[in-house]
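Lab notebook, design round three. We kept the backbone fixed and only want residue identities now. Task for the bench partner: fill in a sequence for the structure below.
Input structure tokens:
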């Protein structure tokens, strides 16, 4: 760990470098993302087999935001996704991996983006998702592992929503479980009584929005917790006392957008923070300025900029983190309660 990183932790914020980038570099980012599909021998590619389908979702959505989807190798992507399909109806991280609700959602998102939902065995996916719901309404991530987590509640609801099959699960049960994870501070945790975390809040608000239950929360209290995540550098963190990270430009901002409070964040400084986290040589966006870039932070940085109305990026849907153009009539109309 560098001396600068230790200093960042001590001050609980990132340093904005002198002469940081102030313009988006879309061509660089498209090249950075496309390189992942072309070089199977790339160290990062080989080491990321356990998140291959999620990685495809990050890359495809980045390209869609940059309006460069046509540059992707569709046949290769479809081969990888089909290879990850399992007899139990779900998708694994890649070929030979057990089915997981996260990768199943990502496979559905990718095939929706590629306009190839026809390749999905909808009944089989519905069967897999239904099998993960527990008596208390919560969801496991994979069969036979008691790992209930509000992330998986959202993944289940989003998968079925995108397939127009939401009614196939116990929706009231999932909403009741998510509401058990609602904390006094306005945030949500991973399971009942666990600490509020911005990533889990996104998942819970997304679940409530998709099932039309946003009126169950105190919007102002939740928005306040989220808005307090903005650090003096402009970047957003995931919980109190933690460092800002570009990915929270999505988890925090999208949550605020869904409940109609995006304006509680200072837009100008957040845009500066994301732009300062780009790499002008290799392309891509990092977790914070001067760190190494990767597809995960690239997609959520671009998605955050799109929500902030940054010019030249396709508009994004705050619930599904997919472009509104791609989602068409599946795009979620954000209607915060009065
Ligand atoms: C449709 C985009 C989309 C997502 C699917 C799986 C999922 C739903 C969302 C994940 C939400 C989440 C929990 C995000 C947080 C990711 C992250 C950076 C976790 C690290 O957390 P900590 O607590 O790190 O280790 P910090 O220091 O940031 O608190």
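Proposed sequence:
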């Amino acid at each position: 760990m560098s001396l600068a990183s230790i200093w960042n932790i001590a001050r609980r914020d990132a340093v904005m470098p002198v002469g940081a980038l102030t313009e988006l570099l879309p061509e660089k980012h498209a090249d950075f993302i496309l390189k992942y599909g072309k070089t199977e021998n790339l160290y990062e590619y080989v080491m990321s087999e356990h998140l291959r389908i999620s990685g495809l979702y990050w890359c495809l959505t980045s390209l869609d935001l940059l309006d460069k989807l046509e540059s992707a190798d569709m046949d290769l992507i479809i081969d990888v996704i089909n290879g990850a399909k399992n007899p139990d109806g779900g998708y694994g991280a890649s070929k030979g991996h057990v089915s997981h609700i996260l990768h199943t959602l990502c496979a559905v998102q990718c095939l929706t983006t590629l306009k190839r939902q026809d390749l999905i065995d909808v009944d089989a996916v519905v069967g897999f998702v239904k099998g993960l719901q527990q008596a208390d309404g919560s969801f496991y991530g994979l069969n036979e592992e008691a790992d209930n987590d509000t992330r998986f509640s959202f993944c289940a609801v989003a998968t079925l929503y995108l397939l127009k099959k939401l009614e196939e699960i116990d929706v009231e049960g999932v909403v009741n479980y998510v509401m058990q994870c609602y904390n006094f501070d306005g945030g949500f945790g991973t399971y009942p009584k666990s600490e509020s975390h911005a990533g889990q809040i996104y998942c819970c608000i997304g679940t409530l929005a998709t099932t039309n239950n946003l009126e169950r929360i105190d919007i102002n209290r939740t928005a306040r917790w989220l808005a307090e995540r903005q650090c003096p550098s402009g970047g957003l963190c995931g919980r109190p006392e933690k460092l800002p990270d570009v990915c929270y430009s999505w988890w925090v901002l999208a949550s605020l957008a869904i409940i109609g409070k995006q304006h509680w964040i200072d837009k100008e400084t957040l845009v500066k923070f994301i732009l300062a986290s780009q790499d002008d040589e290799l392309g891509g966006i990092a977790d914070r300025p001067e760190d190494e870039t990767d597809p995960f932070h690239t997609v959520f940085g671009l998605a955050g900029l799109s929500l902030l109305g940054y010019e030249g990026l396709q508009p994004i849907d705050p619930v599904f983190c997919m472009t509104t153009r791609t989602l068409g009539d599946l795009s979620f109309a954000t209607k915060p309660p009065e």
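Keep this in mind before ordering anything: The two ends are 48 Å apart (CA to CA).
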